């Protein structure tokens, strides 16, 4: 039951801790504790967390994608 509640809260609170935990190879609870303790130290941490939430939510739209050119290579050099 506790695991179900934890998974729900993790998905609800944007998954920033789990993403950083996966990238750094540590448990998400350690990352979560870091943000909690750092939030008491200064308010900049809360702003950084919210920016990471924004980036993680919209990272698929922000990524650079190579777009296909409508002009074919052969058409340019055959002139």
Write up this protein:
This protein is an all-alpha fold and 79 residues long. The protein has five helices and no strands. Helix 2 crosses helix 3 and helix 3 (28-41) packs across helix 4 (44-62). The longest helix has 19 residues, at 44-62. It is globular and about 45 Å long. The model has no long low-confidence stretch (mean pLDDT 76).
Condensed summary:
This protein is an all-alpha fold and 79 residues long. It has five helices and no strands. The longest helix has 19 residues, at 44-62.
Notable features of this structure?
mainly alpha; single chain
- H/E element sequence: HHHHH
Spatial gap, N to C terminus: 70 Å
Shape: globular
Q: What would you report as the Rg, rounded to the nearest angstrom? A: 21 Å
Note the total helix count.
5
Query: Strand share of the residues?
Result: under 5%
Total number of strands = 0
Helix content estimate: over 70%
Structural class: mainly alpha
Major beta sheet summary: none
Mean pLDDT comes to 76
* Poorly predicted runs: none
Describe how the helices and strands are arranged:
Layout (H helix, E strand, L loop, with lengths): L1 H11 L3 H9 L3 H14 L2 H19 L10 H5 L2
Helix pairs in contact: 2-3, 3-4
């Amino acid at each position: 039951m506790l695991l179900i509640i934890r998974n729900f809260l993790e998905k609800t609170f944007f998954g920033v801790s789990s993403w950083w935990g996966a990238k750094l190879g540590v448990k998400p609870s350690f990352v979560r504790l870091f943000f909690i303790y750092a939030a008491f130290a200064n308010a900049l941490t809360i702003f950084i967390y919210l920016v990471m939430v924004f980036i993680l939510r919209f990272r698929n739209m922000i990524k650079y994608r190579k777009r296909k050119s409508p002009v074919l290579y052969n058409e340019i050099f055959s002139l």
